[in-house]
Design goal:
Oligomer: heterodimer
Radius of gyration of chain B: 18 Å
Number of helices of chain A: 11
Structural class of chain B: alpha/beta
Distance between the termini of chain A: 29 Å
CATH architecture of chain A: Orthogonal Bundle
Largest sheet of chain B: 6 strands, mixed
CATH superfamily of chain A: MetI-like
Largest sheet of chain A: none
Strand content of chain A: under 5%
Number of strands of chain B: 10
Number of domains of chain A: 1
Strand content of chain B: 25-35%
Radius of gyration of chain A: 22 Å
CATH class of chain A: Mainly Alpha
Distance between the termini of chain B: 39 Å
């Protein structure tokens, strides 16, 4: 589900071309390339089925695809899946929205104002490598085990991810674009909406896609830290009862959720982001 | 309308950072460019000619002295001074027409009028066919045609060009030079044209100011008479350039 995050930017010497190349390749995911993907999925399913039939694993520890599907249908039928999915989506969605808005705004500010960047970047660079899961105990101590702690934890993780990408993208907007705009009499609000925003749009899209994957990571960390419902919470409960079939089903739902979110964001990007920008 | 540009004791330093002191780039310079004149600023790389242009545009803050356009001191970029850059000047996410319309927006015209003017401006630079193309779909020469149309669409009093044809092939470059002369004659805009090419300077300008040295200063100031090329003048300018 989570492709390893694209490596963070390494300084500003590289120009826009390099940025484009570094963006997750999915930006150019061509439709009509489904054949190889379907074939690979079928191969994995077949291997899984054979492994389950071979009896290599201890009884109950490796469900077949059919058993997993049955577990999935079971949780869908009983309503647990809808409850868990709803709870998780609400947390991840609200946390993502908050983190993306604050991180994006901060990224634009530090990317545009070198002085602010000099002040903020070292702080963020220190915070960024601390995994969100390491903050679960602290979030619980401060905000209890309620929804606030989970949302804030997700928002925090998303904020740092989105800030990094947006900051990098905005700071790489060619200075000539902004100079040309000023020479053409564009006031600050036009320079923002008509130059900075479209020029940084590819980076903004990459930031949101990376941020969404980080939101799911942080969601799992937050729910494992204590919850009454949610996809990761359910995994933990199923784990205690060694219901491997249900755990498989839950993991597959998490994976599909990540893919779906990324497809939606990439689709939005194709609609709004001009490919040659920056 | 066009206006005169005056440099009064203009000096520019570059890059005072925490690691090093300021480096003087342009020595105190006094120059006057009359309204409607066409001047080439000629010199080798690093002689401060682009810096001088940047100071007139308002991108570069003077270390001393001042720039005045039509008697008003320059304190930042503004639409009274149009700029054509060597490269990366067009907005890649806007079509040729969109780029020109960006410049027209400051007049608060209705959409249809803005569009009509943009198309007229592009037709004037010989780009009537490529108006809906993005810069990446245009050749270098066509991109600079759009850049010229965009800069002039804002109706500047002064047109500043920083080696705009440096990256073009010889034939395209000659055509662009002819186009620029034509546009200058029609608009009467004061033109400052930065180049390191002596023949380009002589082909275009009424006056050639030679810059050189570190920090840069004026080495020569030559009027270019109308009519056939004058080998003696070229030799004198080349002597100032120090290229024989």
């Amino acid at each position: 589900m989570h492709a390893s995050p694209p490596s963070p930017p390494e300084g500003r010497a590289l120009q826009g071309r390099a940025l484009r190349r570094r963006m997750p390749a999915g930006g150019g995911r061509a439709p009509g390339r489904l054949g190889p993907a379907v074939a690979a999925a079928a191969a994995v399913l077949a291997a899984w089925q054979l492994l389950a039939l071979s009896g290599a694993a201890a009884p109950g520890l490796l469900p077949s695809p059919a058993q997993t599907l049955a577990a999935l249908a079971d949780s869908a039928g009983s309503g647990t899946l809808a409850t868990d999915l709803g709870a998780s989506l609400a947390r991840a969605g609200q946390g993502f929205a908050l983190g993306a808005v604050v991180g994006g705004a901060l990224g634009f500010a530090t990317g545009y104002l070198p002085l602010l960047s000099a002040a903020v970047t070292p702080v963020v660079s220190f915070l960024r490598p601390i995994p969100a899961i390491a903050l679960v105990p602290l979030a619980t101590a401060w905000f209890g085990i309620g929804e606030t702690a989970k949302r804030l934890l997700i928002a925090y993780a998303v904020l740092l991810a989105v800030w990094l990408y947006v900051h990098d993208g905005v700071s790489r907007v060619p200075v000539t674009h902004l100079r040309a705009a000023r020479s053409l009499g564009a006031p600050l609000h036009r320079r923002f909406t008509e130059v900075l925003l479209p020029a940084a749009a590819p980076a903004l899209l990459a930031a949101l896609r990376y941020g969404a994957s980080v939101a799911l990571l942080a969601l799992v960390a937050a729910e494992l830290g204590g919850a009454q419902s949610g996809l990761a919470y359910r995994l933990q409960v199923d784990g205690q009862f060694l219901r491997v079939d249900r755990m498989f089903a839950g993991l597959i739902v998490l994976g599909l959720l990540g893919v779906a979110v990324d497809l939606v964001l990439a689709g939005i990007g194709r609609r709004f982001v001009h490919r040659e920008a920056s | 309308m066009s206006r005169a540009v005056r440099l009064e004791g203009l000096a520019v330093d570059y890059g005072r950072t925490s690691r090093r002191a300021a480096v003087p780039v342009l020595d105190r310079t006094d120059l006057e460019f009359p309204a409607g004149s066409f001047t080439a600023l000629l010199g080798p790389s690093g002689c401060g000619k682009s810096t001088l242009l940047g100071a007139v545009a308002g991108f570069v803050r003077p270390a001393a002295g001042r720039v005045a356009v039509g008697g008003t001191q320059v304190c930042g970029p503004g639409p009274d001074r149009g700029m054509v850059f060597q490269q990366y000047a067009l907005f890649p996410w806007r079509t040729a027409r969109g780029n020109v319309e960006f410049a027209l927006k400051r007049f608060g015209l209705p959409r249809t009028e803005r569009r009509r003017r943009a198309l007229a401006a592009l037709a004037e630079v010989g780009l009537a066919d490529g108006v809906e193309r993005y810069p990446a779909q245009l050749s270098g020469g066509m991109q600079q045609r759009v850049a010229l149309a965009r800069a002039l669409a804002a109706e500047p009093d002064v047109l500043l060009l920083d080696e705009p044809f440096g990256a073009l092939d010889a034939l395209t470059r000659t055509r662009m030079q002819e186009l620029l002369r034509r546009l200058w004659q029609r608009t009467g805009t004061t033109v400052l044209f930065v180049t390191h090419d002596i023949d380009e300077a002589l082909a275009l300008a009424e006056r050639v100011v030679v810059l050189g040295g570190t920090p840069g200063r004026v080495l020569g100031d030559h009027a270019v008479p109308e009519g056939p090329a004058d080998p003696a003048l070229r030799a004198r300018i080349a002597g100032h350039l120090g290229t024989g």
